[in-house]
Specification:
Blueprint lengths: L1 H25 L20 H15 L11 E2 L4 H4 L12 E8 L2 E3 L12 E2 L14 E5 L7 H5 L3 H5 L13 E3 L18 E3 L10 H14 L18 E2 L2 E2 L6 H12 L12 H12 L10 E2 L13 E2 L7 E3 L17 E3 L9 H5 L14 H6 L6 H8 L3 H13 L1
Antiparallel strand pairs: 1-4, 2-3, 2-5, 6-7, 8-9, 10-11, 12-13
């Protein structure tokens, strides 16, 4: 009896220990917040702003259905499905943008549901395929969504201050036509009725609201709102007057909550800043003049209603200007005043955490073609050719120090 009793006690304990060990492999401990891109909310928000942020957070993860306006064709069903954990996407969730170039003139093929391919569909419909006359297509992985409020709070004059020839580069702003719902701030400087874009791979969105409205309609697929009552060209569901809906899928409040969420996400703090290799890598990054475009430090303007975004010293490692990146990164798609070979300098803050949200590894550049920092450097041509040459001339140890520095951002 004693043996049976001991058996009854010992076996469950052993089973529990083994099970816990197995679960530890299946369900690892939660990551340290500083090692993720979802690090919380900027300080100083009012209770109502915190509530809006929470609502926007929920909406960002919302899975849209047919009843909520999705489809009939779409790219994805949730913002969070592409921007996992607020991070960069991967080629598995890449968006395809297409068009047609004839004698050097680009047509986004809006009449054929361009510019974004929407390959998925609700029951009873067929997903989009590339039109036969589309001779240009580019894969775009989702960018990170942290620090966007600080970018929104940059004055146009701060961005323009670096738009001049220096160190062999000459970044230019992308002037784009404002949307009908854009409200200029005191720091927005108009130029022939246009304004400087700062969001998106080619800086085609002036304000976060523009980016959200476009993403709902063209990235998810057909989600209308009070700011955009138009379904894509070939949508044949719902009560229309032409392509205009009478009742939008989501309200202006829904959009505003999403904007608040994007505005108020914090930037993750840097890591390993006392590591000698990280320090040396930062010095090398500056000495080979990568900081001519990836400018380390800027100061935001006054952003009404957000003291924690106003007059702040930030470290985005970007000038938010367009640069000629050479024929290898020419995607054939001009946007606004951006040529097909021009790209906005990508902010580098948080880049060292990218792989944590991409799941399958590290994917860099607009289409994820580079799977390491060193490989990404090799695609830098055009204005960046001298920087690539300087990097390649460094001993391997110093190249790895620059990699260590990038991983610390």
């Amino acid at each position: 009896m004693k043996v049976k009793t001991i058996y009854k006690v010992i076996v469950p304990i052993i089973f529990g220990v083994v099970t816990m060990a197995a679960c530890g492999k299946l369900f690892p401990a939660a990551p340290v917040p500083e090692n993720t891109l979802a690090v919380g909310v900027i300080p100083g928000l009012t209770p109502s702003q915190l509530q809006e942020h929470a609502l926007g957070d929920d909406e960002f993860s919302q899975i849209f259905t047919k009843q909520e306006g999705l489809g009939p064709v779409f790219n994805n069903i949730s913002c969070n499905n592409c921007h996992v954990g607020n991070g960069k996407g991967s080629p598995a969730t890449a968006l395809i943008r297409f068009g047609k170039v004839t004698n050097g003139i680009f047509d986004s093929l809006v009449s054929e549901n361009g510019p974004n391919l929407l390959p998925n569909c609700i029951p009873g419909y067929t997903g989009d395929v590339l039109p036969p006359d589309a001779n240009v297509q580019v894969h775009l992985i989702a960018p990170t969504i942290m620090g966007l409020g600080f970018i929104a709070a940059l004055a146009d004059s701060t961005i323009l201050a670096n738009a001049y020839p220096h160190d062999g580069v000459s970044g230019v702003p992308n002037y784009v036509n404002p949307t009908s719902f854009f409200t200029p701030q005191a720091y927005n400087i108009p130029y022939n009725g246009q304004y400087i874009g700062r969001f998106g791979r080619k800086a085609t969105a002036i304000a976060l609201q523009d980016q959200v409205v476009f993403a709902l309609a063209k990235d998810l697929g057909g989600i209308t709102c009070d700011y955009n009552m138009v379904k894509p060209y070939n949508y044949l569901v719902g009560p229309y007057t032409g392509n205009y809906v009478q009742d939008p899928d989501v309200s202006a409040g829904f959009v505003n909550h999403l904007v608040m969420y994007l505005l108020t996400n914090k930037v993750p703090p840097r890591r390993d800043t006392t590591n000698p290799d990280v320090i040396a890598g930062g010095q090398l990054f500056a000495s080979i003049k990568c900081i001519s475009c990836h400018i380390p430090t800027m100061v935001t303007s006054t952003f009404p209603g957000f003291p924690s975004l106003s007059n702040q010293t930030i470290h985005p490692f970007s000038d938010f200007l367009l640069h000629d990146m050479g024929s290898g990164l020419d995607d054939g798609v001009p946007e606004g005043s951006a040529k097909s070979f021009q790209w906005r300098t990508a902010p580098l803050w948080g880049v060292g955490l990218s792989a944590n949200s991409q799941g399958e590894g590290l994917f860099l550049l607009h289409d994820g073609r580079a799977t390491s920092f060193i490989q990404a450097v090799q695609f830098h041509n055009g204005e960046a050719s001298a920087r690539k040459a300087a990097f390649n001339a460094l001993p391997q140890q110093q190249q790895q120090q620059i990699v260590a520095f990038l991983n610390s951002l």
